[in-house]
Specification:
InterPro entries: Aldolase_TIM, Methyltransferase_A, RNA_MTrfase_RlmN, rRNA_lsu_MTrfase_RlmN/Cfr, rSAM, rSAM_sf. The protein has eleven helices and eleven strands. Helix 7 (223-232) packs parallel to helix 9 and helix 10 runs parallel beside helix 11. The strands form two sheets. The protein has a nine-stranded mixed sheet with strand order 1-2-3-4-7-8-9-10-11, with helices on one face. A two-stranded antiparallel ribbon has the order 5-6. Helices cover 33% and strands 18% of the residues. It is elongated, with a radius of gyration of 21 Å. By secondary structure, the protein is an alpha/beta fold. The chain has two domains: 24-79, DNA polymerase, domain 1 (Orthogonal Bundle), CATH 1.10.150; 84-359, Aldolase class I (TIM Barrel).
């Protein structure tokens, strides 16, 4: 059978590469027990090791004094291998925003952004090295897709973020929110992303024990994957990156729209709301003279209301600058008129607070820049 992509056909498969080393976070608790038994140790050591990683946020063997000294280093090396190393850390907002560039085991580079607020922290994590969605206003999309990340590589970003929050602010991991809004389209890396969500919400020592309601899964509108997420029954927040209410413009801004149109993406988002009761976020990057007209806001409001009331919240986002981009953020007066048009339709609307723009850490700016 000829598997060569046809002209104009979109593909999501990442290039084949060597797999990351097996990590405790890739495995269920039962699978960890099997791995420990294979190493000649009693199965309960898997629970102890999991407690260190997910509850105590510890990875150093010398701190795991409840494990026998003999073979401890080997067990930790086998189930807690180093998955990523820090290349650079850049700070903004007096240290409350930290963008980290990570080098993965095979040299691929990803970024995550940790933002600390008064009573909580939010970490924006990557699910792929690069992105294959090709949205022209997004630095990550323009970089192309290098590869999918593993479940453990996704989880490790959160664990390291939790460790940093605890060290700097004394905060507990359960006050952390997690947003899949970093590099990559998480639903195009479905198995690993859902595996990561399960590790994040499962109680310790199975996982981190975070609230599903504090996790946001963002997508550009992969409709079949959105329906799969609905069927999972995990009440995370779904965020649909729409950016245009009309197919003609969205075909240009979000190329996946040539496969699944605006109406199909909104219908899938509404099905998610119906199944979970969780209000959906509509993300909309405001681009000057491109998609910021008040009539487009009115059209968006009309489309949303056609599907029901009280099921969405719109987050307009002033476009963050990226190198070489021909587009820029909307004029503040135009932005205000856009919001007013949505509110006139009764649509709850909040301008997204952007953090980290001066360190290229804001929405759409992540491009594995290590400078």
């Amino acid at each position: 059978m000829d598997t060569t992509p046809k002209p104009g056909q979109l593909t999501f498969a990442a290039p084949r590469r060597a797999k990351p080393p097996r990590h405790l976070a890739d495995l269920t608790l039962a699978e960890r027990a099997d791995a420990v038994r294979e190493a000649g140790l009693p199965a309960f050591r898997a629970k102890q090791l999991s407690t260190h990683y997910f509850e105590r946020l510890v990875v150093e063997p010398e701190q795991m004094t409840d494990l026998p000294a003999s073979g401890r280093d080997e067990l930790v090396a086998a189930l807690l291998p180093t998955l990523m190393t820090v290349i650079t850390e850049r700070e903004a907002d007096a240290g409350d925003t930290i963008k980290t560039a990570w080098r993965l085991f095979d040299g691929a580079i990803v970024e995550s952004v940790l933002m600390h607020y008064a009573n909580r922290s939010t970490i924006c994590i990557s699910s792929q090295a690069g992105c294959g969605m090709n949205c022209p206003f997004c630095a990550t999309g323009q970089a192309g897709l290098t590869r999918n990340m593993s479940t453990a590589e996704i989880v490790e970003q959160v664990v390291r973020g939790a460790r940093l929050v605890a060290a700097r602010h004394g905060g507990h991991k359960r006050s952390m929110n997690v947003v899949f809004m970093g590099m990559g389209e998480a639903l195009a890396n479905y198995k690993a992303s859902i595996g990561a969500i399960r590790r994040l919400v499962d109680p310790s020592p199975e996982g981190l024990g975070l609230s599903a309601r504090g996790i946001t899964m963002s997508t550009v509108g992969l409709v079949p994957a959105m329906d799969r997420l609905t069927a999972e029954g995990i009440p995370v927040t779904l965020a649909l990156s729409l950016h245009a209410p009309d197919d003609e413009l969205r075909d240009e801004l979000v190329p996946i729209n040539t496969r699944w149109k605006v109406g199909e993406a909104l219908d899938a988002a509404y099905r998610y709301f119906e199944a979970t009761g969780r209000r959906v976020s509509i993300e909309y990057a405001l681009i000057r003279d491109i998609n910021d007209q008040a009539w487009r806001a009115d059209l968006l409001g009309k489309l949303l209301n056609q599907r029901g009331r009280g099921w969405i919240h719109v987050n307009p986002i002033p476009l963050n600058p990226t190198p070489g981009s021909k587009w820029t953020a909307s004029d503040p007066k135009v932005e205000k008129a856009f919001v007013a048009a949505l509110e006139a339709r009764g649509i709850p609307t909040t301008i997204r607070d952007t953090r980290g723009q001066d360190i290229d850490g804001a929405c759409g700016q992540l491009a594995a820049n290590t400078i």
